[in-house]
Design a protein that fits this description.
By secondary structure, this protein is of the alpha/beta class. It has a single domain, classed as TIM Barrel, CATH 3.20.20. The chain has an 8-stranded parallel β-sheet. Helix 5 runs parallel beside helix 6 and helix 6 packs parallel to helix 7. Strand 6, helix 6 and strand 7 form a beta-alpha-beta unit.
Length: 280
């Protein structure tokens, strides 16, 4: 089965703008390059991968585009621009001219103001993303569910994808938190323009996780979004905190065992092409 990884990172901590990265973490705080991904993905048929920003700087986007230019494996880059600076609209237009620039992602999970995304001054950015035929990756927590619904419904032409199932606290497994997450995801799933990334689950689980810990959450998104609006992503190398690339890939395959091969191919390949309008 051919695979497009819809969510993956390369980084070089020596660049100095990964402010979230723990300096004492040997798994995260090291350089990751194309050759590392090729080695980590092993025997699977990894056809293409999509690079997603991991630092809130224009330099990060330029760094990823440079990698994409020199690698046939990288088919798209989801970058960053500063929504709080209207002058960045021109930067967004410049980035959009690059054939592998496919969307933007503000790091909403790291912004103290949980209502940040509702700022009325950002309207011009959302409209520009639509006009430039780009996409929006929504990185947040369950606390942001209602705000993301407001934005996704306000801009029905905005291609909107939820990263990492909204990062539910799988390690807690509290019923009230699961119900809140489920209700919010259900509302979002009913919007035609909203997709969900099947990614980031293992890092929201406990260290000794198993597939049964993940299954209630994966079953829920499969039911809500179906095979038509879900994209598999590795979230590598972040996933290395709990398992390796193949460990998460094999778990995801097992969690979708009840699907047909055609349905799996949608999740692991076709939907990334359709959502991001990839030109392979």
């Amino acid at each position: 089965m051919k695979v497009i990884d819809s969510h993956q990172h390369f980084w070089d901590p020596s660049r100095g703008d990964y402010h979230w990265m723990p300096k004492d973490n040997p798994i995260l705080n090291r350089k990751y390059e194309v050759k590392d991904l090729s080695e980590a993905s092993g025997s699977i048929d990894l056809h293409k991968t999509i690079l997603v920003q991991a630092a809130a700087t224009n330099a990060e986007t330029e760094y990823m585009l440079h990698i994409a230019e020199s690698s046939d494996l990288v088919c798209g880059v989801v970058g960053w621009v500063n929504f709080e600076d209207k002058n960045q609209l021109n930067q967004l237009r410049i980035f959009s001219k690059h054939p592998k620039f496919i969307g933007v992602r503000p790091m909403i999970q790291d912004i103290p103001d949980e209502n940040w995304v509702l700022n009325k001054n950002f309207d011009i950015f959302f409209k520009s993303i639509i006009d430039l035929d780009l996409s929006f990756d929504a990185l947040g927590f369950p606390i942001h569910l209602e705000n993301f619904y407001i934005i996704a419904s306000k801009y029905p032409k905005l291609r909107f994808v939820i990263d990492h199932l909204m990062k539910p606290k799988i390690y807690n497994n509290k019923q009230e938190e699961f119900i809140h997450w489920k209700k919010g995801m259900s509302k979002l799933s009913r919007l035609d323009n909203v997709y969900c990334k099947f990614s980031g689950m293992v890092t929201e689980a406990c260290e000794n996780w198993d597939e049964q810990d993940l299954k209630p959450y994966s079953d829920e998104i499969l039911n809500l979004f179906t095979d038509k609006k879900i994209m598999w992503g590795s979230d590598w190398p972040v996933c290395n905190l709990r398992t390796n690339y193949l460990g998460w890939y094999n778990a995801a395959i097992n969690l979708t065992n009840e699907l047909s091969l055609a349905e799996k191919q949608n999740i692991f390949y076709n939907n990334s092409i359709n959502f991001y309008k990839l030109k392979l």
